[in-house]
Structures are given as structure tokens and as C-alpha cells.
Automatic annotation (TrEMBL):
Protein name stated in the entry: Transport permease protein
Pfam annotation, one family: ABC2_membrane
Transmembrane segments: 27-49, 61-81, 102-130, 136-158, 170-188, 226-248
Family, similarity comment: Belongs to the ABC-2 integral membrane protein family.
Taxonomic superkingdom: Bacteria
Keyword Transmembrane part of the UniProt annotation: yes
Subcellular location per the Swiss-Prot or TrEMBL entry: Cell membrane; Membrane
Length: 253
């Protein structure tokens, strides 16, 4: 059964990946907005923000990476919505394949596409002066957190992708997720914020994830934020997966 699921998922992932390779503009579009934000914040606002001894591009890159993921998963919802409207799901149901493999194919394709977008963004950050003294272990830890965050948000994207009634509705859910890093420690230290905003910023998931990635990239000791970040990522992933599968079962029943 496990071999059957893996083989079906691999074949279906190949199908969705071909769709991405035929329209590489989706990866470029995903990376353009975060890169534009990075240029604006570093060269327009960066000089007015005190981040101590850390250069501003180093300080804000973790937040930009999360925005890149949040904007990229909108395409996952779009591709799922397109498949639903095109009747491909009904065709898959008539075939002897693992039903959950259809969703996992879209999720894994999202993961690959987002990793490529993240590589592009990091490349531009290097051209802008980003430097890191992190070792291989720290970089692997950063990659692991970003992958976990991508999976969590992608399973959230599956829900509107399956249940939306229009293309706009399928992708509109990503806007609050893109905005969330602005109410965190991603771009300015939280101690500069007024009371209620500061409380929200310090207790929402993005801040702990950003702080953990920033500490890893700058070679600083990672405190309790890493456990909070992992708890948020795993918690969101589990809940989103459960809701996505429930939505899928209703759709195909």
C-alpha cells in the first residue's frame, strides 16, 4: 500500500511539475514582489531603522523569505482550483490510484517551486550585501524550518483551492499571510511598537520563526524561540492537513 501511494504520488508530482516548468513565470512572479520589498526596505527605509550591529539586509531577510513562501502558495491554490474546475479530479477517481496522492502531488510541487523562489531571493540578497557566518548545520536548520513552514502554509492553501468558487477566491487567502510579517519582528524590533501591537507581534507565529532564522544566519545562540517556532509550524501543519483532507473527502464523496 505504501509503495502504491509513493509511486502514484511521484507520477502525479511529475505531472504538476511539468506544468510549472512550462510556465516558469510563476516562480519569477513569486520572487519579484519579495525582491522589490527587499530593495525598498534596504535602500529607502533601512537607514532609518536601528538594528544595532546587524546590517539591515541581514536583519530583514528572514521576513522576506517568509513573504516569498506566503506569496508562492497562492499558485498552489490556483492550480488545485484549475484541476477541480477542469474535471481532472473526477478522472483520477475512476483510476486505481491512491486518492491522497493527488493532493500530495500539488503540495510537493509547491515545495519545489517555493524552494526555487527562495534560492532566487537569497541570491539577490547576496548581491545586496547579505553575508552569513552560519555553518552547514545552521543552514540545514534554516532550510528545515523553511520547508516545514512551506508545508504548513501549502496545506492551508489546499483548503481554498478545493472549496473556492472563483479564481480570485482561491488565491485571496494568501493576502493576510503576506501581511502578517509586517506585524512581527521581521522589519523592525518589536520594542519600538506601541503596547497592543507589540503584544500581538511578540505572540504571533511569524516572530518566533523570524527570530530563529535570524539567530541561525547570524551565528547567534538560538533561544527558546526555536521551540516556539517548531510548535507553531507543526501545529499549523497538523490542523491544516486535517481540514484539507476533510474538505477533499467531501469533494470526492
Amino acid at each position: 500500500m505504501a509503495t502504491h501511494f509513493i509511486g502514484d504520488t511521484a507520477a502525479l508530482t511529475g505531472r504538476t511539475l511539468r506544468h510549472v516548468t512550462r510556465s516558469p513565470d510563476t516562480i519569477i512572479t513569486t520572487a519579484v514582489m519579495p525582491i522589490a520589498m527587499m530593495l525598498m526596505f534596504v535602500y529607502v527605509f533601512g537607514g532609518a531603522i536601528d538594528t544595532g550591529s546587524v546590517s539591515y539586509v541581514n536583519y530583514m531577510l528572514p521576513g522576506i523569505l517568509l513573504i516569498t513562501i506566503a506569496s508562492g502558495i497562492a499558485y498552489t491554490a490556483f492550480r488545485l482550483f484549475t484541476d477541480m474546475q477542469g474535471g481532472i479530479f473526477e478522472r483520477f477517481q475512476s483510476m486505481p490510484i491512491a486518492r491522497s496522492g493527488v493532493l500530495w502531488a500539488h503540495v510537493l510541487t509547491s515545495l519545489v517551486a517555493n524552494v526555487l523562489s527562495l534560492v532566487v531571493v537569497v541570491g539577490v540578497a547576496l548581491l545586496m550585501g547579505f553575508r552569513s557566518g552560519a555553518g552547514v548545520g545552521a543552514w540545514l536548520a534554516v532550510a528545515g524550518i523553511l520547508i516545514l513552514f512551506t508545508l504548513a502554509l501549502t496545506w492551508i492553501a489546499v483548503i481554498p483551492g478545493l472549496s473556492a468558487t472563483s479564481v480570485e477566491g482561491a488565491s485571496a487567502f494568501s493576502y493576510p499571510l503576506i501581511f502578517l510579517p509586517f506585524l512581527s519582528s521581521a522589519f523592525v524590533p518589536t520594542d519600538t511598537m506601541p503596547g497592543p501591537v507589540r503584544w500581538f507581534a511578540e505572540h504571533q507565529p511569524v516572530t518566533s520563526i523570524v527570530n530563529t532564522i535570524r539567530d541561525l544566519l547570524t551565528g547567534q545562540p538560538v533561544g527558546n524561540d526555536v521551540w516556539t517556532a517548531l510548535a507553531w509550524c507543526v501545529g499549523i501543519l497538523v490542523v491544516a492537513y486535517a481540514f484539507a483532507m476533510a474538505t477533499y473527502r467531501r469533494k470526492i464523496s
